[in-house]
Predict the structure of CGNR zinc finger domain-containing protein.
Amino acid sequence: MEEPRTSTPFPEVAGHPALDLVDTVHWRLDPSRAIDTLTDFADVIAWCRQLGLAPSAVTDAALLTATPAATATREHRAVVALREAVYEAVFERSERAAELVAREHAAALSRSALRRREEPATWEWDVPHDATGPRAAIAMIAHDLLTADLASARQCADDACGWVYLDRSPRRNRIWCTAAGCGNRNRVKRHQAKRTS
Ligand SMILES: [Zn+2]
């Protein structure tokens, strides 16, 4: 049995789960510092659980123990590829990347079923209750993001951070991923540069 993960929660500052997924890479714009916090399939499951993206059958620790190592590796790699495709499709306008999201979305739909739920009353995609479930749930949100209005998609103005988000500020002038993190650090940096110049 794997120990439950106790590491810091994944960031949720993006305003859309598919961009929160992109933000599982820290310091994306500085290859010497970049940290990928989705290190394996256990992280993928933990991420889906934290975001409330998939039914418990797909986010439960039991799924991990029931998944053969080779399948876990395959699913982890596929999710990372999907994450990078979201980034490239939104921020680099890559058609190849958008095609990958489209393929994953079509595959996810073909293996999911619409199920009625109440409160809120809606029909909801029920992804496969197996190791492909997390990838399917992620493909659904990736497609939702790509086909939504992307005019407010932004990347943090920090040189290295690379976190992305939807700017929903009233004046459309949010330039930092978080005011307390990159905003504050860059304010201090500017202040120090002024004092020493
Ligand atoms: Zn930032």
